[in-house]
Amino acid sequence: MTLPHPLTGQPFTSPVRPGTGWPDDPAAAGTPAAGDAAAVRDAAGAATSLAALDARVSVCRACPRLVTWREQVAVDKRAAYAEQPYWGRPVPGFGDPSPRLLVVGLAPGAHGANRTGRNFTGDRSGDFLYGALFRAGYATQPASTHAGDGLQLRGVRITPAVHCVPPANRPTPAEAATCAPWLDRELSLCGAALTGVLCLGALAWTAFRGAAARGGWTLPPRVPPFGHGAGYEAVAWGRPVAVVASYHVSQQNTFTGRLTAPMFDAVLSRLAATAPA
Q1: What is the CATH number of the domain that holds 117?
Q2: CB 92 within 8 A of CB 57
Q3: What is the residue range of 180's domain?
Q4: By the 8 A CB rule, do 121 and 131 touch?
């Protein structure tokens, strides 16, 4: 069954097949899909650009539980989106190809990024995040509704620690470990322009630290535990990189007031000193 894309009207199946014309789909019909952890390591290591990495990420099938869940969500849908096609694939990174600031999240939202194919897009978490990035001068518009909606990021790239939506928003340790080589390679491909990292939530805080250590970054002897506003200075490419934590921009945090817009703006302001918009 095919349904029209909300922006383009082009029909798509759910999940979307690679190379069929979905806006900003980085993959082609023949992009090889990694089928296990070893294949993820090989595919990530062979990527010579962020665009190539994104293409390989977007067709990965290495975690059977996550593949089943993301595709089931794409078929079952939420009632409000019953007439829309769902991306239903891993969600790659998004943003500036030479970022000064990297934002690391947890995983795609079931009816946000898993539906639209772009990080923090099509849900309330995205409304909160992109609104803040727009206020800070990092985004060209405050809303992110669909891939292909014209949104561009200036000096920022956003990526999840785990690229597939997990049941109950909780990837297993094995799934996080299988996905880790994608982030490892992403850090190396971001290049020496990177001067700031914002980690959204405890899982992203831990995942980034592991990726930085494996990538040969110099970390302080004692990295502080996760907490909103926690931070430290790492060294990569011979330059300091500021690493700062924030509570995740999930509705659970923003609707309850655990994370407010002024709190998040303050974290972005700290990073703007090292990664100006």
Answers
A1: 3.40.470.10
A2: yes
A3: 3-272
A4: no
